[in-house]
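Final report, closing paragraph on structural work. Over the funding period we assembled a curated collection of sequence-structure pairs, and we close with a single example.
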Amino acid sequence: MKSTGQKIITTDSDYQQFCREEQKIYNHFLELVLTESIDKIIERFRILFIQYSLYQIPEISTAMGRIIQLPECEEKFNAILNRCCYILINHQQLPQDKKNVLKQLMNLFEQAIDKSESSYYGSSETKKMLELVNYFTQSQEYLSLKRMVEVINISSANHTNDPLNQPLKNLNSHYPYLYKYLLIGPNSSKEHQQAIKKMQVEKQQKYEIDLSHYVTHQVRLQLSQVKKSTSAKNPTLLSNDELLLSIKQFVGKVEGNETYRNYAKRFLAYTTVPQSYHLFKDSFYEYLSTSFDVESHHIQVHFKNKLYNYLRSIMSERDDELLNESLMMKTCHQLLSFFIVHSSKQSQHFFFINLIGNLGPVITTGLLLKILLVCQQVKPNLEKRFALLFKHYEFSTQKKVQWLVKVLENMQIALSTNFGRIDLSFLN
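Its predicted structure, as stored:
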């Protein structure tokens, strides 16, 4: 969509004028959520953004008219529309009310898409507004909004009897550790970020409680040898055997009769001794390479060589420097890029798929956990890379990306048992 002959924001006064018009729109909806019913607000939203007909408050109509006349209005309009959506969503206190608002908003956008795809002969202003709304429905902001729909379980697809044939995006709500990178965009307001953080904490706490109850229940069943009951449900998408194997791996003794956490502590104690960066990389290789100690000698050699050569190449120009926290953190960042996916090339993750295919999702997750336990500061980096993979495959069926689902499930267990509040140490 190109615009010509229109005024561009080039001066501070022009920018200040735009900000005033923008703030008028926000203040209007912030006032509405405190004074009117949600049905009335949705209708106002429809008239202003979708229908763009005469609005009840001339000052708001004028402000919107000035905004959409800007030639660079596409990106600015996306941010405005996105924030207005979240003002409506975040000011609903009850989960059911949030669901209702989101459902109505998505219906409005679908109507706008239908209108834009058909021949439309209304006013030029109304046509332009439809073009802007259609542009918004193709943006990352809109994708985040749709993911929000899945997170609060509007989609009836979550209740299907055939989940494997449903798209991966239906599992948005299942992985709280990905919320920050799936649901928060570059233009998300501070209020929206806080709302997502609150939802993430609540979902994670519920997951940990459910996981603790279920594992404890399974242990009691094994000890008492009574018939299975349904009093505790498996909160994961893993089978019972897969879940217990995962728990034992990330909580139990696996590395030379040590837990991952104790193994990492012992390695970190070694790194406190002054040493060159080159020597650190050698010892880091030894620490990580035990994950490749599998039955197949060919697999052992292949992956160990890959890891060794990559570690040697990382900042080799600094090999003679003394190890410090910055070097360790940068090394771990680059290893996550190497093992999982590069942040700018999300389609290139064949090595990660190869790892999972040869080591399995549990051991592969354990390898990544080793890195996090040595340098917890890179945990957001890991979460971001998993979110990149999730976005890349979100429209694929769960059946086609079971390798990713299994790793996402195992990583959630690994993070919960090693960084969360859940305590399953009694299993050691």
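The CA atoms of residues 113 and 373 lie 47 Å apart. The mean pLDDT is 86. We thank the funder for supporting this effort.
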